[in-house]
Design a protein that fits this description.
CATH topology of the largest domain: Rossmann fold
Helix content: 40-55%
Structural class: alpha/beta
Number of strands: 13
Largest sheet: 6 strands, parallel
Strand order of the largest sheet: 5-2-1-6-7-8
Length: 290
């Protein structure tokens, strides 16, 4: 099956390309940056704590993309999605779209969107031996609705096909408002302690304790029991300890303060909607608004 990936950044190179290629898709990548396209002509490296893998990917500039694909995957960030949607309309593309984004709010920019949840910490892209290198943790997970377009992804470990869009949406919320919200809290409280990296901050009890508390707070809203919540918190803390040198400023800085706030406000409102208390989220929102 022919797939077009729009966006050759951290998630695109760190997760989408390796997984879709492993599943047997004929994948072509494109990006608004000609420099990025040119840098990928000879492939790139995927660098994880367990090793380095060379990956080849076909790339074309956006003005060279032809209408020959059966599915489009976007990995561009929320601020660029409307432009991508407009570009697809100009190209008269009508194929289904998978939004491989990490967004606190749902968006609907394309006539047919297939729900997907992507989960991998991919903190940066660097240059290694003259080639680009996508740095990522070993862990990854993709959850996607079972559809003829996505079915061959099921051959890849850590990809889960789900029967209904409603179930995928629930899994999206569970991922976003545990993992991504934990990232924001780790950066917020880690910076207060003078930490620079996620792995450094999560090793501090002042941070890890707040992660456990926050996951416990959102559990009733997200449908977790206490055991599920403890397992989820422990997994997040373990993952954040991965030695990938993930900068706290990448997650929480002056540029992304507004988006960081959404990862706190949305679950806080959700917890309130079920009549539960959320003192850790309240504390984080107060700090973010100060």
């Amino acid at each position: 099956m022919k797939a077009l990936l729009i966006g050759l950044g951290q998630i695109g190179l760190g997760l989408v390309v390796p997984v879709f290629k492993k599943a047997g898709y004929t994948l072509t990548g494109t990006d608004a940056s000609r420099d990025r396209i040119n840098a990928l002509r000879n492939g790139y490296f995927l660098q994880t704590p367990s090793g380095v893998e060379k990956i080849d990917v076909d790339v074309v500039s956006m003005d060279e993309v032809a209408d020959e694909f059966e599915v489009i995957i976007t990995s561009v960030g929320r601020q660029h999605l409307e432009k991508v949607a407009a570009w697809c309309r100009e190209k008269h593309f009508s194929v289904p779209v998978l939004l491989a984004e990490n967004l606190p709010d749902t968006v609907n920019h394309f006539p047919r969107q297939i729900p997907i949840v992507v989960d991998r910490i991919c903190p940066r892209i660097v240059t290694r031996d003259g080639c680009l290198s996508a740095v990522a943790e070993d862990y990854y997970k993709i959850v996607v609705v079972d559809d003829p377009i996505t079915r061959q992804l099921g051959v890849v470990n850590c990809v889960e096909l789900i029967a209904t869009e409603e179930e995928v949406e629930q899994r999206r919320k569970q991922k976003m408002f545990t993992v991504n919200t934990s990232h924001v809290l780790t950066a917020l409280f880690g910076q207060q302690l003078g930490c620079l990296l996620v792995e450094e901050a999560i090793a501090r009890s002042e941070v890890s304790t707040r992660i456990r508390s926050m996951v416990s707070e959102v559990a009733p809203w997200l449908g977790f029991d206490s055991k599920d919540a403890e397992q989820r918190a422990s997994e997040i803390i373990r993952r954040f300890g991965s030695p990938v040198q993930d900068s706290l400023s990448r997650i929480f800085g002056s540029v992304n303060r507004k988006s960081a706030l959404r990862y706190v406000e949305v679950p806080l409102n959700g917890v309130r909607s079920v009549g539960a208390a959320a003192p850790t989220l309240e504390e984080a929102r107060e700090l973010l608004n100060s």
